[in-house]
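Allow me, if you will, to draw on your knowledge of protein folds for a short while. I have a record of one protein: its chain in single-letter code and its fold written as discrete structure tokens. Kindly check, if you would, that the fold set down in the tokens agrees with what the sequence suggests. Thank you for your consideration; the sequence and its tokens are set out here:
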Amino acid sequence: MATAPQNQRTYRAPCPGCGAPVEFRSAQSTHAVCAYCSSTVVREGEVLKRIGKMAELFDDHSPLQLTASGKYQGRAFTLVGRLQYKYPEGSWTEWHALMDDDGSSAFLSEDNGAYVWVQAQATQQALPEAGRFRVGASTAINGKTYTVTSHQTVALIAAQGELPRLPALGVQHAMVELRSQGAAAGSQIGSAIGQGTPEAQEVLSLDYGSTPPTVTRGVPVLLDDLALTGLRSEQTKEEKGRQFACPNCGASLTVQLAQSKSMTCASCHSIIDLSNGIGGELRHAEQDEPIQPLIPLGSTGQLQGVAWQVVGYQHRMGFEPSDPDEHFGWDEYLLFNAKRGFSFLVDSTEGWSMVKPATGTPVVSENLQSATYLGTRYTLKESYNAETNYVVGEFYWQVARGQKTLNRDYASGKNLLSLEQTPQELTWSVGAQIDSALVAKAFKLEDKKELLARSDVGPFVPNQSPFSKPEFLIFVVFALVVLAVSQCSSCDPQVENCTSSSYRSSGGSFGGYSGGGGHK
């Protein structure tokens, strides 16, 4: 019978600020934040020295809390500390995990319900300065190829408990995120969209808040697989301070999700920026032409074995780079599950699809015409520019009308792969098409089944232009007859969209900003 690991030596001393006991369970920990007075203390041998006061934690209503324990790859750990970071589009949290067997440290990074197990990574050579990394470029570290997917300016905003390191509070610094290409054998598409174990891919984070930069390697994990105990119960979550008046019309609003960085007012449809918290100055942008989502916000449904709630909706437009007058539209429903985070249910002319940001990055051919991900080869369907033109609900990133991205959509049968890129971030998303009847059943909308129905979607056939399809030719003939009879347009811009539109040949943009400062 295996012997239980010996407890590591615990060091306890009075806080220099208030005299309350401050405990260090790990010999590797150098800093702590007093739970009573929020003093930041540094351990120098057997003496604690107060070096300042930590800002108050933002209550993100995470199911995690200090002293929660679990297992990773058979090794027991306990959460003993917490770091909160902010970047332009949102924030994320890193939990300091103390390994029970040897007292070493790891981190469980949490960003909008997604979790990454993070450990220190040694590098074989010195890293270049942060400015040398360009989003979308490939680079090799320790002989492995990665894609640069994010280059953000971040800052520590709060901390709690026992910590092996403590960046300067509020000091902005660069953080670069790299994601691995390829995947372990046996990985499946289903795991990437909420089924089974997450795909075996890596997230390499380069934190330039220290010299030399701190390098960590992360792999995605599911909360259920960590066998966690001591989690926060739903009853302990307080909504105090989550109500406020709309800064545009004064209507009373309630934030339903603590992760939300923006939301819309149900009364005046203004987009409200929550990135500075409710106590901060709320910025807003007015919206006109309100659109009614087919699936009401707040609806809950069971898809792919997971209970999802619809928390946000946005309508987006795609524009052909060679002809900006040609455009198409689609809808995205933001879905939330407390343990699985966020996914997207996309409604396009080709049908419905369920997609989620991918952990790794595909290997793209030099001519960009194909991409290989998790052992599957996808063929390029189209490239286009995308823009958000209407939003409603709550979002985990700082959404705004007029946000623009460069998109590329790939397909393999009914499996979908999509790239969405901004100057600061590159997001790959993966998913699959689903039947409209499943959507109607999941959200108890059988009475609206005909409204949700879309054309049957067959496997994608490369190089088949939508304009060569028989139904399109029939439509053209019909349109010419109508034009011959009518000498003027009957379109009323107050009632309908009078601009030209084209065939939507993909399943949507699949997700918007991923954010997370390296730990999405």
